């Protein structure tokens, strides 16, 4: 898979919150046309890591490279200008606003009528509908409020928006966390669609069953440190699950729960 171009690379990055080291010596690679999964328990440092890639926080140690060039991101806008788009779990959508307005949120196409520039709402609706359909999301009506969509569909609108506006790297912080099996499937299909269009995707999740089918590489974090950094060929779903659950700890728990039976 090394023929894929490296878009973003963190080398040994670390982050302090006051005197607390939330992230220590973590490296991760994001390649075009691949999905990098970041896994770990609550407080492992997943959000901290992606906030460094997204320009929300600056790293205190290590190196961040974008397109092979060392950078220090000054803001989320800076990251976005370099093609790194992030969809946060709370999504920044406006529930009462229509799907197409949410799709554009401030970047609506405009047209001139005499001296006035007004939103080209018909063009915008068509563009939003097409962009969503290209990713396989066929909504009955882009006029409906986003609040009437399912959680999975809302994530999809946010992903389609990032793809449409030219993101090269798409970071998704726990997009499947609050979703049932079917809804999570809808979102994972979007992750695969973005990957197939050549984006580098960073997928954060607690769930190895969500990560494994779409992931090309897996970074496991525990208490701010990297527990493992694997390419898919080097790790099975069983092993990934075992490591996530703390390996030996899980085996002991299984043994205990199995009780006398067997
Ligand atoms: N702004 C902050 N100020 C101080 N400490 C923070 C801050 N953000 C995170 N932390 C701490 O840093 C550590 C890593 O947090 P982080 O949010 O990156 O974990 P996470 O893996 O995303 O967890 P979760 O699965 O719960 O989202 C935690 O101990 C957390 O309490
Ligand atoms: Mg988090």
From TrEMBL:
Q: Which PROSITE patterns match?
A: ABC_TRANSPORTER_1, ABC_TRANSPORTER_2
Q: Which Pfam families match?
A: ABC_tran (PF00005)
Which GO molecular function annotation, any one, does this entry have? ATP binding
Key words, A-Z: ATP-binding, Nucleotide-binding
InterPro entries, sorted: AAA+_ATPase, ABC_carbohydrate_import_ATPase, ABC_transporter-like_ATP-bd, ABC_transporter-like_CS, P-loop_NTPase
Question: Coiled-coil annotation: which residues?
Answer: none
ABC transporter domain ranges (all copies): 8-248
The answer to whether UniProt assigns keyword Nucleotide-binding to this entry is yes
Q: What is this protein called?
A: Sugar ABC transporter ATP-binding protein
